[in-house]
Amino acid sequence: xxxxxxxxxxxxxxxxxxxxxxxxxxxxxxxxxxxxxxxxxxxxxxxxxxxxxxxxxxxxxxxxxxxxxxxxxxxxxxxxxxxxxxxxxxxxxxxxxxxxxxxxxxxxxxxxxxxxxxxxxxxxxxxxxxxxxxxxxxxxxxxxxxxxxxxxxxxxxxxxxxxxxxxxxxxxxxxxxxxxxxxxxxxxxxxxxxxxxxxxxxxxxxxxxxxxxxxxxxxxxxxxxxxxxxxxxxxxxxxxxxxxxxxxxxxxxxxxxxxxxxxxxxxxxxxxxxxxxxxxxxxxxxxxxxxxxxxxxxxxxxxxxxxxxxxxxxxxxxxxxxxxxxxxxxxxxxxxxxxxxxxxxxxxxxxxxxxxxxxxxxxxxxxxxxxxxxxxxxxxxxxxxxxxxxxxxxxxxxxxxxxxxxxxxxxxxxxxxxxxxxxxxxxxxxxxxxxxxxxxxxxxxxxxxxxxxxxxxxxxxxxxxxxxxxxxxxxxxxxxxxxxxxxxxxxxxxxxxxxxxxxxxxxxxxxxxxxxxxxxxxxxxxxxxxxxxxxxxxxxxxxxxxxxxxxxxxxxxxxxxxxxxxxxxxxxxxxxxxxxxxxxxxxxxxxxxxxxxxxxxxxxxxxxxxxxxxxxxxxxxxxxxxxxxxxxxxxxxxxxxxxxxxxxxxxxxxxxxxxxxxxxxxxxxxxxxxxxxxxxxxxxxxxxxxxxxxxxxxxxxxxxxxxxxxxxxxxxxxxxxxxxxxxxxxxxxxxxxxxxxxxxxxxxxxxxxxxxxxxxxxxxxxxxxxxxxxxxxxxxxxxxxxxxxxxxxxxxxxxxxxxxxxxxxxxxxxxxxxxxxxxxxxxxxxxxxxxxxxxxxxxxxxxxxxxxxxxxxxxxxxxxxxxxxxxxxxxxxxxxxxxxxxxxxxxxx
Amino acid sequence: xxxxxxxxxxxxxxxxxxxxxxxxxxxxxxxxxxxxxxxxxxxxxxxxxxxxxxxxxxxxxxxxxxxxxxxxxxxxxxxxxxxxxxxxxxxxxxxxxxx
Lengths: 893, 99
Description:
The structure holds two protein chains of two kinds. Chain A is mainly alpha-helical. Chain A is built from 35 helices and ten strands.
């Protein structure tokens, strides 16, 4: 018979081995050799902390007592893992993108970083997990007793507590050493994860070994074992359907919500790809864990004396058949199950307690909070270490107070129901944008209250609730009986509590969510959680520019450590391209800083700390629109596109117009080149012809000679005038003109122009208003007169009317003087209006009279004089407006 | 510029809208994901079958049969999940297989 001391030696060796594994893994990770510590297999094995001592020992016990019910707690998680694409993938992605540190942090972060919610979930988790830790301590203690006094498991109370105390202390030390090595929960606890992966292998190997021994060693093969099962008490399927379905769903819910499961599933997850492997490997693991449970139970019931504890069959069956080595292996399996659960649960709970309860209180107590001096890291680490000790200590306390009785055996499901209360808020949070903080809080508190009243308090045995309450209901109200709420009796107490707590939880959650209105931050976070696969970048919630980068730096150093914080700030400064080591506090930077900090102290605390320095946050409507609403983004973008396309079509229209004008100009120029050659050629021809006549003809009379010579003279004058005009225009265009500024009255200039333009030929009646023309001008009067002459001559030439009439109106504008020339002819056609001021432009070829330079010259003159000349559309006849700047014109004295 | 902007590449700068029809590769991937989504529902249904087994003393389901049924489904689900996981990874490693 193996002695207790030898067992303790084996146990200690195993613990040393675990320490070594954790240490080596931690060192490898530090040196960057993370391949093997981050293997998908390690991730899968780390999930096995789902199988605690309660399942290692308890599954066999449960099978011996109530048949196949034990399977449900494995079936639920198997379904969740196989259906990883539904929920787990999203949870892991959210956990990574939001740097979630715990299940409380997830809920808090989703509902607007509410610390109140985080506190609620934390309290729920602590209350739900403490008995569970006590259960682990009890199982280790019981398994020690088996070896101490085989077959007589009834030692004194004191010795039991003694064993449990040492186990608790050892676990707390291990957890403190490897669980609080680094602060950032996103830097994984490689040592711990590796140790629990090894423990997972040990417990699976132990259970399989016992199972194989039982099936092939004791029963004689598979067929015989099956026959033995059929002939035993478990031989027939006797299962309450409600419990079968209810417990399967319950264990699936608990698998997602238990703090320790969330820790290994989401927080310690390195790579989403690991989920893919775990999706089949973990169900396989669970299947192997549960495969031999029934055979062991059946054989145990056969072999062991009536009344022996079926929970310990895994140990007592090998011992009773003399397989001490197997018994020790089995003991180590149970020990592994218990320790790995306690370690991870302690890490998860301590993170929650320190981030959501201790840190906020500490920040408040120290007044200035983030801006006081000192290293916050040590405070956080201390808080976390104390929390670990506190959580394990609470478990021990619960164990010693409850006396380690059989009441603990049911605590597994009780704990499951408690943590499942988080499920509506969690799933609602990641799938439903409309879920609000009020709804989550309401649902959680409702479910929590019912769980405490209907399940937790009755489960911890007599005394917690007075008998009167149990039988007659709270305040004597029969419908408030803890195990028959609303007067519905006959339900299994567990199912009863599960049904009512979850139903009312969900109803409250949904109704409150529908009725309340979320804050902007909540809506922002909601959109990010629900659409985590669409949003790669985070939202901006900080108004930049207010924060002092130095303050942020000091705070970050105190949480992340000086080198890490400096590296972070330098990286950001380089990214921003600023000179010097400090980046600008842009909203982007604040957002990413907050997220890094939240990896250490949780979202709510990080948010509060950054908020203390930055002063306030703003979620602008634009941010909300941009982040929360994909369609708004699209609309904004398409609006911008529309503007752009409008602009484009405008530009295209302008270009088209310019092109048309250019084409017309080109056509006109070609036409005019022909025209000008013709204009030049006609006088030249007649000059040549008449000069030849003069030269060659001898018998010309003096009259004829004079006639021909005058023709030559006239033609030469015409040529000169044409060339003068061209020269004039070219001079004007080149800006080489010299203005001869003089003073004179507008009326006099018009008089002169009318006289010059209207001499001889058809008479053009000119209507003028002499009073309005009493304007003193200070300009180049000769040039101005040239413009007027041109306009009047044009009217005389082109006005097709029986009684041609030109009206000259003078109008005073604020800083311009308008002189309008309007005739009663046909006017200028619309398409010709923008061409008439071009060189060589003539309205029609038929009415040839000039070279088409008059208006071009006029426009150049007016431009030189600081005014302009435009065609006035909308009049019946042709209408031109000459504009003179006011400073050239002075009122007549 | 089309009136209906869904097909307009300019309209979707940040997140490419899912096209209506897919390449063969992406189509396969979508169906694999459908299978991954369907698998747990199938498992739930099959594991709910024991609810129908009557608990009567005469025609009760024998314990061995129940075990074989439940563990058989378990094995089948694990194998199916394994095949899906391998194919999904292979699909992901190919270029252009992203979701």
